[in-house]
Amino acid sequence: MCIKTLGLIQLKASHTSKNICAEIKSILTDFSISRKQVYTITTDNGRNMIKAVELLNNDSEDEEEVAEDLDDDGLLKDLKIYSIRSIKCAAHTLQLAVKDFFQRHEYASFINKARKIVTLLRTPAYRYLITEESLPQPILDVATRWNSTYSMLSQLKNFEDFCERRLKCLMKLTTTEWDDLKRLVTTLEPAYTATIKLQSVELFMGDFYKLSASLKGKLAS
Question: How many other CB atoms are there within 10 angstroms of residue 182's CB atom?
Fold first, then answer.
């Protein structure tokens, strides 16, 4: 498999499906690539991206070629000569599912409390104490970074004893909450591993189906 980057552009206009479609067509034109040569386009799940692919299909560049191929009875009139298939990024789709899981009320409030503790641990005073005890620096999650919430919670597990000794009572997790944290990390680990594998340079359809079946099995158990 040979991967080439044809364009990496800054879209200064509004990120509408129409503008995105125009940029794609411009890049294809620059490299003399016909839309008949494009079989699939992989995007995230944004409606503007999906709509842009639809516009590429609807805006035919080959009307004259199609007309030449029509017989006297117009038998090919309703035949779609080419069609670009929209493929949704599997890793992005998985992250949306994980995000929906986080937004469930019982998890949202708990994760928010854990996030506040991590934010406190990242202040200068606590960072000094953490360094003194040779602990890794805590990780704060970022909304747009895949797996960052898992990484934050997984790292926080290492601070159970530290938090019990150093934090004030109001900021501590209870014994039950620490147990919940460990269970949550265990539950999210298959999704974390799957996301890493889905970002491999070479991932074939067979690899994807194997990974999907494995993930479903682990989550079901």
Answer: 15
Structure tokens belonging to residue 108: 């949202």
Q: What is the pLDDT of residues 122-181, one digit of tens each?
A: 999 999 999 999 999 999 999 888 899 999 999 999 999 999 999 988 788 999 999 999
What is the C-alpha separation between 140 and 116, in angstroms, rounded? 9
d(CA 95, CA 191): 8
Tell me how long the chain is. 221
Q: Is residue 56 within 8 Å of 35, Cβ to Cβ?
A: yes
What is the radius of gyration, based on Cα positions, of the chain? 25
126 near 118, Cβ under 8 Å?
Answer: no
Given a contact cutoff of 8 angstroms between Cβ atoms, the answer to whether 35 and 61 are in contact is: yes
Long-range contacts, stretch 179-184, CB < 8 angstroms, 24+ apart = 180/110, 181/110, 181/114, 181/153, 181/156, 181/157, 182/157, 184/107, 184/110, 184/153
The rounded distance, in Å, linking the Cα atoms of 109 and 111 is 6
Q: Model pTM greater than 0.85?
A: no
Paired strand residues for 41: 86
Contact, 92 vs 191, CB < 8 A?
no
Structure tokens at 187: 């539950």
